[in-house]
Amino acid sequence: MTTLKPRRPSAPLLPLPAPTRPPPPPLAHALSLPRPAMASHLRLHLAAAPPPPLHRLHPRRLPRPPAPPPGPSRTAARAPPPLPLPRLIRPVRAVGGGVEREPKEGDGAGGPGLVGEDSAAFRLGDQSLASWAYFAVILAVVLVALNVLWIDPTTGVGTRFLDAVASVSDSHEVVMLLLTIIFAVVHSGMATLRESSEKIIGERAYRVLFAGISLPLAVTTIVYFINHRYDGIQLWQVQGITGIHELVWLSSFISFFFLYPSTFNLLEVAAVDKPKLHMWETGIMRITRHPQMVGQVIWCLAHTIWIGNSVAVAASIGLIGHHLFGAWNGDRRLASRYGEAFEVLKKRTSIVPFAAIIDGRQKLPENYYKEFFRLPYVAITALTLGAYFAHPLMQASSYQLPW
């Protein structure tokens, strides 16, 4: 039986100093240790805090950035950021479905950046063969319908319409003036109602309605003028004077170059493309903001001088009055649609031909003549010459109608 010896009282515990962590051994020394000792040293090495960053240990050994070269400071050499273009400068679009291009800095009056559109610009690559085929079909249908429903005395109502107007007076001058006024009221009135009406029935439907009413009235007015142009009181006779025929011919020829550029948009006229209210700026618009009015005045004056009777005077009064109102109404509609952009265009264009160019408000570009070397103006040249030589055919066709 063992005897338990009493335990000797232990000495009081003294605080021991904090153990210091030895530096990690070199890799060769760690590999030479036994496996348990090697694992212990590796654990101590992995648990050690990461070394301080290099820039804290050796702050003065980092290379300094090179000093800037002598010369103007960077702030002075840096160009100021370009100012944004005004929002009123609109993309340039070609007539007939051309591609838009965004304006660039420095664009302005007479330059590529226009508040209006580039008139009479026709690019063959932008055209669709299917659209022009559709236009040809629509044109044929319109001509057939116009003949059957209006021109033909047996089936159309044009003769009855003209008889109703002629019943007001036996005077050819009065009838001529009434026909012009009726056409002007319908044409300008429907143009005034265009914006509000298009919101109700759409652009294409309103264009069909507009053309369906205006075209028969225009045909009646033209045919009546051809048939009765020499029935009035003769006021003067200058047809035998040398040079008058050439002056009248040249004036009439020039007047067709003042057609409003929207006339060239045949696909929009026929509603193949969606009709738009365009604001043109190049080409003939640099000469006058209302070329259709100017061209009509030139044509009326030339034919009135040549014919020299009261019927020609009545027709000219009606047509010129209609186009003067159209100029005012056109500016009003463009201002309502385009706002500030139209005010800019209005300041650098004029109604009186060449007025803005003479007083310096319109700056013509160096290649201004190229704005007329375009397909629409080539077509106008051919059609105007053709219409002159076709005058006998046109007159014979008009004489066949009892209008």
From TrEMBL:
Keywords: Membrane, Transmembrane, Transmembrane helix. InterPro entries: NnrU_dom. Residues 28-37 have a biased composition (Low complexity). One of its GO terms (biological process) is carotene biosynthetic process. It comes from Paspalum notatum var. saurae. Residues 175-394 form the NnrU domain. GO terms for molecular function: 9,15,9'-tri-cis-zeta-carotene isomerase activity. GO terms for cellular component: chloroplast; membrane. PANTHER family: 15-CIS-ZETA-CAROTENE ISOMERASE, CHLOROPLASTIC. The keyword Cell membrane does not apply. Gene3D superfamilies: 1.20.120.1630. Residues 12-27 have a biased composition (Pro residues). Its main location: membrane. Residues 1-87 are annotated as: Disordered. It is a multi-pass membrane protein. Pfam families: NnrU. Signal peptide: none annotated. This is NnrU domain-containing protein. It is found in: Membrane. The keyword Nucleotide-binding does not apply. The chain crosses the membrane at residues 132-151, 171-193, 205-227, 247-272, 372-390.
